[in-house]
Structure formats: C-alpha cells, structure tokens
Amino acid sequence: MRLSRLPLLLAMITALAGCNFKGIPDPQVSARDTEWMAQVPTAEDDPRFGRYMIDDPTGEAPGTIVVDTKERQLYYVQPNKKAIRYGVAVGDEAYGWTGTASIARKAEWPDWNPPAEMKARWPHVQYTKGGPGNPLGARALYLYEGNKDTLYRIHGTNEPEKIGHAVSSGCIRMRNIDVIDLYNRVALNTKVIVR
Description:
Layout: H1 2-17, E1 22-23, H2 31-37, E2 52-55, E3 65-68, E4 73-78, E5 82-87, E6 90-91, E7 99-108, H3 116-121, E8 139-145, E9 148-155, E10 166-168, E11 172-173, H4 176-185, E12 191-194
Parallel strand pairs: 3-12, 6-10, 9-11
Antiparallel strand pairs: 1-2, 2-5, 3-4, 4-5, 7-8, 7-12, 8-9
C-alpha cells in the first residue's frame, strides 16, 4: 500500500520544487515596536499568508501595490517580474472597497478615529490612541483618490488571527511585522489597486 503512494509523493515533490517562493526576512524594528508588538496576541502563521518573494502575478508596473481581495493577498510589485506577497484580511462583502488610489500619508502606531458611518453601525467603537490595543496596529498607509481621503487604509492589526479572512469594514489588514516591512519599502504617492 505504501508503494502505491510513492508516485503521488514524487509528483508533489516535483511540483513544489518548481515553485518560485522565497521567504523575506523580517525588517528591523525599534524597541517600541518590539515592546508593543509583544503585547498583541499572536496567531499561528499560516504559510498561505506568509511574506514571500514570488513571480509577479499582477502584470503591473514595479512599485505598484495590488490587493487581490478574493485571494486575500497583497502584492508589492518589484523589478524583473517579481513581487513581494503578503497575506491580508479584507473587507467583508458588505463593506469591501475596490478601486485605484495612492498613498497620501504614512503613520507609525497611528491613532484611530472611526468614521461616522462605523460609529452609527457599532456605537461601541471609539477613538483609540495609537498602541498595542489599537485596531490600526503598527503602521497605516492612508489611501486617497486625488486629494480626497477614501477613509480606507492598509494597516496593521491587533487581531492577527483574522489574516486570510473577509472581516474588516473595508480596510486591508496585515500582520504588524508585514505592515512594517511594506511601510519601509513604499513611498508617498505609491499607486494602490484593490481588486
């Protein structure tokens, strides 16, 4: 019986050998980042949502961020037809946002002031000072269409166990270490496409 599984095992090994995934080391972080991230609950890492250098599946220009909401992946396009892939949590169907924007602001451990629409839906949400208990996590990238704030963000999270799910009110959530990595790589005016 075990010999009958050998062809399947060999096929799986061959298929995996052809994959072009390369892990990306964690970025350097400050003492504050280390201290505050240690206070955020941890979640078991799912390799489907890890940070990897891969062949670019987007076809977009280097320097572009592409969020695939269906696959729960964010791609930061690199030269030579490569991309850094990060797992994300996205907006659930009722609150999801798609479109093209640019990063107009970047913030470390930002304060969170929920929009009026969110406060109307969930009266318990309130202004939260930046820190480990803040839903925006370690970093936030603010998405604008022209000069108008979309009110959507790419940001960290204090709920890493939700990466890979459609759970947010439209924002793109990342593990804190991943959003720090992306934050360090991108500049203001970076193009962001959410599909």
